[in-house]
Design goal:
Shape: globular
Oligomer: single chain
Bound molecules: adenosine-5'-triphosphate, magnesium ion
CATH class of the largest domain: Alpha Beta
Largest sheet: 8 strands, mixed
Number of domains: 2
CATH superfamily of the largest domain: P-loop containing nucleotide triphosphate hydrolases
Distance between the termini: 91 Å
Strand content: 5-15%
Order of helices and strands: HEHHEEHEHEHHHEEHHEHEHEHEHHH
Number of strands: 11
Strand order of the largest sheet: 6-7-5-8-4-9-10-11
Length: about 400
C-alpha cells in the first residue's frame, strides 16, 4: 500500500534548506555571469545623435547648430556608417546643457517619490528603475533607494545583493541608529546620473530593529516612521529626484519610504486580482496613519496603469480603475511588452537593450511609455520646485537671483 507513495514526499530538514540556499545563490551568480558576459558587469547604452535631439525636443538642424556653438560640449564620435554616437555620460552632459531651463533651479531640493503597492509583482521595481533611467536621460540627477529586502532594484542596477552589497551600503545603518545620514551608503551605478543605496536580505532585520528602538527610545521622541526621511535630509540638495522602491507589504521599511516622500506612484496592472488587492493599499495606509497620529500632505498619490494588455478584459478593469481613482490615475500607461520581460531576464530594463533587438516598433512602444512617465514625473517635480521657490524666504530668493545675474 505504502509503496505507491514511494518518493512522493521529499523530506527536507533545516540543514537541507541551508544547502539549497547555497546552491540557489551560486546558480544566480553563474547565471548573471553568463548573461552579462564578458565583463559580468552591466554596461551603459550608447546613444545616437538622433536620440539626443529627440530627448532635447529639438529639430536635427537646431540641435546640430547649438552643439557646434558650444565646442566645450562633447561632439560625439562619427562611426564608419556616418552615424554620430555618444556615450551615456557625454549624452547627459549635452542634454543637461540644452535642457537647462527644465532642470531643478539652484537652491531647490530633490523631489522624493516612493513606488508602492502592497500587492506583489505589479511592476514596482521595474517602474522605479525605468523612471530613474528616463529622468536621467532628461538630464536629471537621480538617487535610487532600494528599501525592499528582496533587492530587485539593486539587481536591476547590475549588482548581486548577496556578494556585492554589505550592510553599510544599505539603509540599515540609518535604521539601527549607527548613522544619521544616508550619505555613506550611496554608491554610483553603471548608469551615469543614477546613484544607489542598495538593498540586501539584511534589510529584513529592519522589521525587528525599528519596533525595538521605538520602545527603547520613546522618551527621546523617537519616531520609527521618520528615520529615512531624516536620513535623506543631508542629500536633498545633491539630487533632483530620489526614487524609493518598496516591498510588497506595509513593512517598517515601506512606512519609512512613504513618509519620506513628496509623492507616491502606485503601479496597478488592470486585472481583477490586482485591482481588488490594490484597494488595500489605501485602507491599510490610512488606518496606519490614523493609529500613529501622523499629519502629512502628499503632493501627489497617483495610480500608474502598468503591464497593460490590449485585451477586452483589461479594458473592463481599466474602467473600474478610472471610476475608483478618477484623476489620480496618471495620464500615461505602461503596456505589457515582451521587450520589458525579456530585458529583465538579462537583469535590465528596456533602456538597457540594444537598439537592434526586437522590432523597432515594439521597443519604441515600451520606451515611449516610460519616457512619457518620466516626462510626467518631471512636470510634477517642476511644480514642486516652483512651490519651493514661492516658499523661500525673500532673502534667499534675492540671493539666488543675484547669483543667476
Ligand atoms: N510592462 C511590462 N511588460 C512585461 N513584463 C513586465 C512589465 N513590467 C514588469 N514586468 C515583469 O513583471 C515582473 C514583476 O515586475 P517587478 O519586479 O517590477 O514587480 P514588483 O511589484 O517590484 O514585484 P515585488 O512586489 O515582488 O517587489 C518582472 O518579471 C518584470 O520583468
Ligand atoms: Mg519589487
Amino acid at each position: 500500500m505504502n509503496d505507491i507513495f514511494d518518493g512522493v514526499l521529499q523530506p527536507m530538514d533545516l540543514e537541507d534548506i541551508r544547502r539549497q540556499a547555497e546552491v540557489a545563490a551560486d546558480m544566480v551568480e553563474k547565471v548573471r555571469r553568463t548573461v552579462l558576459a564578458p565583463t559580468a558587469k552591466k554596461l551603459p547604452p550608447l546613444l545616437y545623435q538622433k536620440d539626443l535631439y529627440e530627448l532635447c525636443e529639438l529639430e536635427r538642424g537646431a540641435f546640430v547648430y547649438r552643439l557646434k556653438a558650444s565646442p566645450e560640449l562633447p561632439q560625439g564620435t562619427t562611426l564608419p556608417n556616418r552615424r554620430i554616437e555618444f556615450t551615456l555620460a557625454e549624452s547627459r552632459q549635452v542634454i543637461r546643457e540644452l535642457r537647462a531651463p527644465s532642470l531643478r533651479p539652484v537652491g531647490r531640493e530633490a523631489v522624493v517619490i516612493s513606488v508602492a503597492n502592497f500587492k506583489g509583482g505589479v511592476g514596482k521595481s521595474t517602474t522605479a528603475m525605468t523612471m530613474a533611467q528616463g529622468l536621467s536621460l532628461l538630464g536629471h540627477q537621480v538617487l535610487l533607494i532600494d528599501a525592499d529586502p528582496q533587492a530587485s532594484l539593486t539587481t536591476l542596477t547590475g549588482l548581486l545583493p548577496e556578494h556585492e552589497v554589505g550592510e553599510g551600503d544599505t539603509i540599515f545603518p540609518l535604521m539601527v541608529g549607527e548613522e544619521t545620514s544616508i550619505r555613506s551608503a550611496i554608491r554610483p551605478t553603471y548608469w551615469d546620473g543614477i546613484d544607489l543605496v542598495a538593498a540586501s536580505a539584511d534589510l529584513f532585520n529592519v522589521e525587528f530593529v525599528l519596533p525595538s528602538r521605538q520602545v527603547k527610545e520613546l522618551k527621546h521622541g523617537f519616531q520609527f516612521w521618520n528615520v529615512l526621511n531624516l536620513g535623506i535630509d543631508d542629500v536633498r540638495e545633491d539630487y533632483d529626484f530620489v526614487i524609493i522602491d518598496t516591498s510588497p507589504a506595509l513593512s517598517y521599511g515601506t512606512v519609512n519610504a512613504l513618509f519620506a516622500s513628496n509623492g507616491i506612484v502606485v503601479p496597478l496592472p488592470p486585472n481583477a486580482l490586482d485591482y481588488s488587492s490594490g484597494a488595500q493599499f489605501w485602507s491599510l495606509f490610512s488606518d496606519l496613519s490614523d493609529r500613529l497620529g501622523i499629519v502629512k500632505k502628499f503632493d501627489f498619490v497617483n495610480v500608474l496603469l502598468s503591464r497593460v494588455d490590449p485585451d477586452p478584459a483589461s479594458a473592463v478593469v481599466k474602467r473600474w480603475i478610472f471610476s475608483t481613482y478618477g484623476d489620480k490615475v496618471m495620464p500615461v500607461e505602461i503596456p505589457r511588452t515582451i521587450v520589458t520581460s525579456n530585458a529583465s531576464t538579462a537583469f535590465g530594463t528596456v533602456f538597457d537593450r540594444p537598439v537592434t533587438e526586437h522590432s523597432a516598433k515594439t521597443r519604441a512602444r515600451a520606451r515611449d511609455a516610460y519616457f512619457d512617465l518620466a516626462k510626467h514625473v518631471e512636470r510634477l517635480g517642476q511644480a514642486i520646485w516652483a512651490r519651493q521657490v514661492e516658499q523661500t524666504p525673500l532673502s534667499l530668493t534675492m540671493r539666488s537671483t543675484s547669483e543667476v545675474n
